[in-house]
Amino acid sequence: MTDRLFFEDLSIEDSFDLGPKSVDREEVIAFAEDFDPQPFHLDEEAGRASILGGLSASGWHNCAMLMRMMYDSFLPRMASEGSPGLDFVKWQRPVLAGDTLSGRSQIIELRPSASRPQLGIAVFTHTLHNQRGEDVLSSRNPVLIRRRLAAKDPA
User: I need a labelling partner for 113 at 20 to 30 A (CA). Which of 27, 86, 87, 128 fits?
Assistant: First the structure.
């Protein structure tokens, strides 16, 4: 891809729309069976009996859906080299089977990497909300982005 966005192409407050992503019952259960088999993620009745109020997607499933929405929205266009981790993730409300998620990712900080001059660091915040406009997830993480000069370096 020749029209990639490098670190120098980004600016603070660049933002990217996420979603929509429909959350279906089968996907909630399949994720839970593999990664978080708590009853309220596997069974609608157990979910209704819990404080979550219904068949609820695992928080880690929510993070995986956020990752997919980020990829679908902007990651393939960037000269991304991955992320060293998350600063935080907050699960603010349950995501229930049948919900539709959407949101926004925004760059809040840009800085060159002190240890790797070929990279810059873009710090993103992410917010997902359900179809009622209620925030369900927020997170922040740095993303390593190649610098344009490094892309031209023959080494």
Answer: 128
- The two three-digit tokens of residue 18, written as one number: 């996420």
Residue showing tokens 């900080």: 109
Record the pTM.
0.93
What's the pLDDT tens digit per position in 19-71?
999 999 999 999 999 999 999 999 999 999 999 999 999 999 999 999 999 99
The answer to whether 66 and 91 have CB atoms below 8 angstroms apart is no
Q: Is residue 102 situated within a structural domain? A: yes
For the chain, the distance separating the N- and C-terminal CA atoms, rounded to the nearest angstrom, is 20
Q: What is the CATH number of the domain that holds 116?
A: 3.10.129.10
